[in-house]
Specification:
Blueprint: E1 4-11, H1 18-26, E2 44-49, E3 53-59, H2 69-83, E4 87-93, H3 100-109, E5 113-118, H4 125-136, E6 141-146, H5 155-165, H6 183-198, E7 208-216, E8 220-229, H7 232-239, H8 244-261, E9 264-273, H9 281-286
Parallel strand pairs: 1-3, 1-4, 4-5, 5-6, 8-9
Antiparallel strand pairs: 2-3, 7-8
């Protein structure tokens, strides 16, 4: 058998474990992960290369009912990812019903679908076996594999199944490349992740991070970034009394960035208002959600 390569899209509802799964396979944290739903907004590529295969994963936003133009753009990332794929991984939790919209889109794609039944550590063996038996009756699904993405349970079996569905072909990326995203992109995501951890309710969902400057020197990287919010009140919350809030975001972000980029970081972080940006095409284009 020759070298195999192909594109695999991970799809499912928010917070089901898609990003955790891809990060595990890649061996590095590419997609930010928080306990809050809908953390992932973009389609993020993670490349896994072995001597016999190359798998190009697409981690996609969780499938939701759109309430803003931003949500529509996020769902466009999901559905267009199917167009480029050779195989779909549909992630479900043990007691989660099958999403009919996802099933409809998967049928339209005509692609093979593997169901990954995630978070089995939170259920019983009997319940997991019952759920697998039920899902295997669905003619759309090629197989159902119980997994625990957080702990890597049965990841070897998942990889073997994935490879079995990939076509023979040359690698799409060099052996040492694990993503097609830029360092600037990951800087903005890491800062946004800290906002999700530090703030609740609407604040994290109203924020976007724009990296204005990224200057790499021999021993340090100078980064200037803006957190964009929708209202002046949100700006006040993020900045905090005497600048305490923005300082806290900066300190936590810098620590994560130094681990990710393996260099000392100087981070100049400020807050700006882009009123109603989630609903306006002009801002969505500027922030990279639309062409």
């Amino acid at each position: 058998m020759g070298f195999k390569s192909g594109f695999v899209t991970i799809i499912g509802r928010p917070n089901v474990g898609k990003s955790t799964l891809m990060n595990h396979f890649v061996g590095q944290k590419l997609s930010i992960v928080t306990p809050k739903a809908s953390t992932t907004r973009h389609r993020i590529t993670g490349v896994v290369t072995d001597q016999n295969y190359q798998i190009v994963f697409s981690d996609t936003p969780g499938v939701i009912k759109a309430a803003y133009e931003l949500h529509n753009a996020m769902m466009d990332f999901v559905w267009t990812a199917l167009d480029d794929s050779d195989l779909i991984l549909y992630m479900l939790e043990v007691d989660e019903p099958v999403n009919e919209l996802i099933v409809e889109k998967l049928k339209e794609s005509g692609l093979p679908v593997l169901v990954l039944l995630n978070k089995i550590d939170l259920s019983t063996q009997k319940r997991v076996e019952e759920r697998i038996a039920t899902l295997k009756q669905h003619t759309l699904f090629k197989d159902v594999i119980p997994v625990c993405a957080l702990h890597g349970f049965d990841s070897k079996l998942v990889l073997e199944q994935i490879v079995s569905y990939l076509p023979e072909g040359m690698p799409y990326f060099p052996d040492d490349q694990i993503t097609d995203r830029t360092e600037r992109f990951f800087v903005s995501e890491i800062i946004r992740e800290q906002i999700f951890y530090l703030y609740s309710k609407e604040i994290p969902y109203s924020c976007e991070v724009i990296v204005e400057d990224f200057k790499e020197h021999e021993n340090i990287i100078d980064i200037r970034a803006f957190i964009m919010v929708e209202r002046e009140g949100q700006k006040g919350i993020l900045v905090g009394k005497g600048g305490a809030g923005i300082k806290r975001i900066g300190v936590k972000s810098r620590k994560e960035l130094e681990v990710f980029l393996d260099k000392h970081i100087f981070l100049d972080l400020r807050v700006k208002v882009a009123e109603g940006w989630r609903k306006k095409d002009l801002f969505l284009k500027r922030f990279g959600y639309k062409n």
